[in-house]
Amino acid sequence: MDNPSGVGVIDRSIRILTRLEEGPATLLELVEATGIARPTVHRLAAALIHHRIVARDEMSRYVLGKRLNELATAAGTDRLTSLAEPVLNWLRETTGESAQIFRAYGQSRVCVASVERPIGLRDSIPVGTEFSMKAGSAAQVLLAWQDHLSLAGGLQEAAFSSATLASVRRRGWAQSVGEREAGVASVSAPVRNGQGPVIAALSISGPVERLTRNPGRYHGSTVVTAANRLSKIIEYEG
């Protein structure tokens, strides 16, 4: 850490969280990245897990926990959600469907921003709703660009296959029909930290009767446009 506070336990915990900001890590990887002794890393990580600041993924690696998103949402300072509103509104108006943003937290994905279709049948997903990473177009997007170990673990018992994720990476968007919930279809695209890693999935969802059984054909390019727009806004504002 370049500018330690002088409170050792806090400084060491922040070094652990800073490493996890880059992605999942094993205990050994945390030790190597932080320079902190293995027993101390293990003890601090256990305490952070207790408070839900850190979690474990399916490969038992350490990842950032959901409590961080809850704190950011409560404070109203989450950069992604604060910048996303105009893009979400544009996407809803353009497609006529409810729009959401999801983030991955361990083995779950959480809706961190949402705007609903104003009238008619719609897929209502309030902020804070938690879904499995095993189904849905947003789960596909959040998993598709992860490392090999995360891919292997994420595909276990998933409703989609490695071939599906390869298609997502190739075309830049994902679709699902009845995967998360019967009668519901969705289309998602990756939101990046500028030109960097995927940090979220931008989605639209609604009844299959309206989105059809091939929703990506009609809305894939629009969702990608919105996700790219949000990625550029994040880069510019960063």
TrEMBL record:
Record domain IclR-ED: where: 67-236
GO biological process, one term: negative regulation of DNA-templated transcription
Signal peptide segment: none
MF annotations from Gene Ontology: DNA binding; DNA-binding transcription factor activity
Cross-referenced InterPro entries: GAF-like_dom_sf, HTH_MetabolicPath_Reg, Tscrpt_reg_IclR_C, Tscrpt_reg_IclR_N, WH-like_DNA-bd_sf, WH_DNA-bd_sf
Highest taxon, organism lineage: Bacteria
HTH iclR-type domain ranges (all copies): 7-66
Pfam families recorded: HTH_IclR, IclR_C
UniProt KW keywords: DNA-binding, Transcription, Transcription regulation
UniProt KW Nucleotide-binding keyword: no
Name recorded for this polypeptide: IclR family transcriptional regulator
Organism of this sequence: Enteractinococcus helveticum
